[in-house]
Design brief:
Blueprint: E1 4-5, H1 30-34, H2 38-49, H3 52-57, H4 62-66, H5 70-77, E2 90-91, E3 95-96, E4 104-112, E5 116-125, E6 130-143, E7 148-153, E8 155-158, E9 164-171, E10 179-191, E11 204-209, E12 213-215, E13 222-223, H6 229-235, E14 242-250, H7 254-265, E15 268-269, E16 282-291, E17 295-305, E18 310-319, H8 322-334
Length: 335
């Protein structure tokens, strides 16, 4: 069961909403049902595509509070082509684009910049009889019309059983630009001569269909460590406040529900409110996060469980701007 808004937001959002055609695919049971596996999935990606995933996917650790891992930051800073894009705001957890045990292992990492989205593709070749050169990923942006392709940085040679990177740089508008991007791996194949171990001089062009890369509103939020939630809440402009109610359907317990919503919003829990007392039928969680431009957003999540197990959630947000406060509701409504 997905999030289902049970009353409309009191004011029209100024943050771009996801158009129906660009809505992300929901797994059976909805995003709420699937989000509980976020941490485990990211940990698996970390093992296959780099240990940095663990820091990027964590819910409350200091690595998560930074919004991106030092490993990814180092990779980006090592490429002079990205210097003109401005400061890196966030790197998302890796997503696998190939099935397990296939000839190529490809993971995608989304890097959010002030006006750009950089897609990093971690590429590994597992076929010793072939060398893959001039490797890149061709994107189909038909279902992600807000994005504009600017630059492709190919990988000269896909290493055998090691990780190399190619990149695609996309310009994006302000707001929570979302969509689904088709991906095709393009490369030149050169066969390895078994007698010499050297690659043949002549090669041929080939391609390999990958899974889509999906960009969601939650990709633009990162956790914010905050020492005084209530004091900061009072300092924020009351006119930025937005409130809405959501019906989350039947749930087994509030703790799992809290963790799922926290994973969707990608924000930092404050004052230990992420822990629900045993057998509690109501609970309030305080979250702090940032959006591009280091714009703060604070959130109060109030949960209540009825006798039939139905869970209702009230979301109240404030931000440095009305747009930041609206963005919180856009992420939930998108989910």
């Amino acid at each position: 069961s997905c999030f289902a808004s049970v009353c409309a937001s009191p004011k029209q959002s100024t943050v771009p909403k996801v158009a129906p055609a660009a809505k992300l695919h929901k797994p059976p049971g909805g995003l709420m049902a699937a989000a509980g596996g976020v941490t485990a999935a990211a940990a698996g990606s970390a093992a296959a595509g780099g240990a940095a995933a663990a820091g990027a996917a964590g819910g409350a650790g200091t690595g998560a509070a930074a919004g991106y891992s030092s490993q990814y930051e180092a990779i980006i800073k090592a490429r002079p082509e990205f210097a003109s894009l401005g400061p890196l705001f966030k790197s998302c957890a890796p997503v696998r684009l190939t099935e397990e045990d296939t000839e190529y292992a490809i993971h995608a990492v989304k890097h959010v910049f002030p006006e750009h989205l950089v897609l990093q593709f971690d590429c590994t070749n597992t076929i010793a009889e072939q060398r893959l050169e001039n490797v890149s990923v061709m994107l189909d942006l038909a279902d992600a019309p807000d994005f504009e392709a600017e630059t492709v940085l190919p990988l000269a040679s896909m290493p055998l059983n090691e990780v190399g990177q190619c990149f695609s740089v996309l310009r994006r508008p302000a707001g929570l630009s979302a969509g689904k991007m088709g991906c095709v791996l393009k490369f030149t194949v050169k066969e390895i001569d078994p007698s010499t171990g050297e690659a043949e001089e002549e090669g041929y062009e080939d391609e390999y269909q990958l899974e889509d890369v999906e960009v969601a509103g939650s990709d633009y939020s990162r956790p914010l460590l905050l020492g005084n939630f209530r004091g900061t809440w009072e300092q924020l402009e009351p006119g930025s406040e937005r409130e809405d109610d959501y019906g989350l359907g039947p749930r087994e317990n509030l703790q799992d529900t809290v963790e799922t919503v926290m994973a969707i919003l990608g924000m930092h829990p404050c004052e230990g409110t992420e822990a629900v007392p045993p057998n509690a039928r109501s609970h309030t969680v305080l979250l702090a996060g940032q959006f591009p431009g280091d714009t703060r957003a604070l959130v109060r999540l109030s949960f209540g469980m009825g006798g039939d197990g139905q869970v209702a959630m009230k979301v109240v947000s404030r931000g440095d701007s009305e747009e930041a406060s609206e963005a919180v509701h856009s992420i939930i409504q998108e989910a």
